Amino acid sequence: MRELTFGQAIKEALVEEMRRDPTVFIIGEDVAEAGTVFKVLSGLVDTFGRERVIDSPISEAGVTGLGVGAAMTGMRPVVDIMFGDFITLAMDQIVNQAAKVHYMSGGKLRVPLVIRTTMGATRRSAAQHSQSLYAWLAHIPGLKVVLPSTPADAKGLLKSAIRDDSPVVFFEDKMMYQVKGPVPEAEYTVPLGVADVKRSGTDVTIVATSSMVQVALEAAARLEGDGISVEVVDPRTLMPLDKSALVESAKKTGRVIVVDEGYEQYGVTAEIAAVIAEGAFDHLDAPVRRMGAMNVPVPFSPVLEDQTVPTAAAVAGAAKQLCGRA
Amino acid sequence: METGTQRAIPAIPKEELLQMYEQMLRIRIFEEQVNELYTSGKMPGLAHLYIGEEAVAVGVCRALRREDYITSTHRGHGHCLAKGAAVNQMFAELLGKAAGYCHGKGGSMHIADPETGNLGANAIVGGSTAIAVGAALSAKMRGTNQVVVCFFGDGAFGQGVLYEAMNMAALWKLPVIYVCESNMYGEYTATREAAAGEVLARPQACGIPVKEVDGQEVRAVFAAAKEQVERARRGGGPAFLICHTYRFRGHHVGDVNRSSYRSAEEEEAWIRERDPVRLLGLFLIRQRLADASALEKIDQTIRAEIAAGVQFALDAPYPEPGEVTQNVYP
């Protein structure tokens, strides 16, 4: 199968959906000629013109609200928010407007809006350009939250997100844009709400999201040498959350580690650990182990920053402990 | 800047004037009934009455087509009615009944009615200012020739998203009219204590043309709105209309002790001299376009319609409990 980078897969999804549906357009800071700071959208403006690839002012709240209004009136906007940290500027528009419109109107209005943004640390960008804040949004009924971990998933999930009639927030790991992976050439989508087993195993389950899927797979490879068989499950979307897939894997292995790049406190790891504890309690040999980002603002110095994100070595160590091999 | 009241208001056909009178009176009597329902414990939640400001909603919406969009505010009953909402479904929504515009899920501050172009009332001050730009961009992209009116109060001058929204509307020449209902108070604080400098300089700084009108004179509001709406429909871009008006009642029904922020004398003077319904009634009589008995007849008709609407809502069933989980996602 041909290989694409994560960034190319994202762009291909946008191109296909913009061709398929004339109501799809993109708006955000530096999305047109600049093709975003990450160059993910390079050339898109040449294909679709500035009418559908719109450079906006640096106004996250305004642009997100614009997306909500356009979505309510027949368009399918894709709002680009450069860094996930900047969703904080648009929180009223996302939480009080986008997420509420359908419910508050008794189902009469819809907001088929996609907000594409980024997440992830270790880019030496310090505390305001490195956070993974999707737990804030997964907390809000009315929103869907997507966390792709491979180029193929990114493409298929983004196409589903654009076709979805709900507001969807799509988080891309900015460290992953250059990562390559197989992507089918034929048309396909990946449904929202279906987890994917990235590696099958029997001794311990590692539930990992986005950037942490590669970390989990690396840990699994190391553990193989120690005779520990690891299953890696990627929920792919936090909302809807494929609870049964997580519970099934937990029942199978009896030991679970949840790894995620959001802050550990009150975060995704806590929610998923609770889902597994509720659904698989009788099958667990040990309490579910959580590994999130360290509960500190992300520091600049590489020596400090590298400590804040779970590593394959740390995950492997935790797995050994859990299996009584430490 | 043009000041609408200083110029002669173009003649408006008698039939239209009578319709505007009827619409304003409908809002007035509707709101009086809301007050009654609220104070008698039949209406839950909050009620922000539009009494005193009727000429703004009616004058502006009269300049719009049915398919044009509006966004509204927490004080939005008047906007909804002026854009064509039916009193039965309005009252039903206010009482949390299944027959309401939002099936009882929105209530007083969130009435939406896509059938009449009403994209919804918004309980976040300034919360719909960017949504209105999006609707305007959508209208432009879809080539529908629709115009969007964003109603907001002077309290929204304190919200940053208003400036982000006006900036984009001006950059892209979008068909959106920002209608500021300047009623002198944001909740319990005088506007002069909350907004520095000249507020009209703010849209002007984005290159948005502004008009200033007496918001108690529905003919002046209509004339100004009509010009701005037509200009926007021709592709002339956004406009800003400030309507000087007054909240005859409190911020909400429960706001009864208002002496901390405004005097009883001030309220009485506005109610006595600047009542928009009475002002149009007097004009109609002086111009011999209607006599007192004709206005009385309109009054009776509207009161009957409102009474029937209240009864409809009181009799209507509540939503089924199971509806609580419906409409979270389409």
Automatic annotation (TrEMBL), chain A:
The keyword Oxidoreductase applies. Pfam families: Transket_pyr, Transketolase_C. PANTHER family: PYRUVATE DEHYDROGENASE E1 COMPONENT BETA SUBUNIT, PYRUVATE DEHYDROGENASE E1 COMPONENT SUBUNIT BETA. InterPro entries: THDP-binding (IPR029061), Transketo_C/PFOR_II (IPR009014), Transketolase-like_Pyr-bd (IPR005475), Transketolase_C (IPR033248). SMART domains: Transket_pyr. This is Alpha-ketoacid dehydrogenase subunit beta. The lineage of its organism: Bacteria, Bacillati, Candidatus Sysuimicrobiota, Candidatus Sysuimicrobiia, Candidatus Sysuimicrobiales. It comes from the Bacteria. Residues 4-179 form the Transketolase-like pyrimidine-binding domain. The keyword Oxidoreductase applies. It comes from Candidatus Segetimicrobium genomatis. Keywords: Oxidoreductase, Thiamine pyrophosphate. One of its GO terms (molecular function) is oxidoreductase activity. Its cofactor is thiamine diphosphate. SUPFAM superfamilies: Thiamin diphosphate-binding fold (THDP-binding), TK C-terminal domain-like.
From TrEMBL, chain B:
The keyword Magnesium does not apply. Pfam families: E1_dh. Keywords: Oxidoreductase, Thiamine pyrophosphate. Residues 23-321 form the Dehydrogenase E1 component domain. Its cofactor is thiamine diphosphate. The keyword Nuclease does not apply. GO terms for molecular function: pyruvate dehydrogenase (acetyl-transferring) activity. This is ABC transporter substrate-binding protein.
